[in-house]
Request: fold
Amino acid sequence: MFHTNAMCVPFNKLSDGKDKRTTPVKLGCYIVMHLATGKCVTGISGSVSQDVDRICNELKSFSHESRHFNRIMMMDSDLRVFEYATETRKDAKAILKQIRGTMYPQYLLLN
Reply:
């Protein structure tokens, strides 16, 4: 797991297609976590919610760049998403650095 004090918009992307996002996030960073294993990918974006939707769609169709993530999605396709809205790209990088630095165990981080 990871730790950060930043406020986030967490929601689930479940295999039944239900999406619980309350507010779309523009600039910031994100974590897409596989619920069954805890393994995740992270990133920074100027359009976080759109990029998360794209990543989730790639994972659902097993066409994501991470072959390992594609394999674990074949077993169970439920995801937990954390979206962090920031004012600047520098703030997003700082949050992502904190998340990556506190990720334990490190093998959960796939990128």
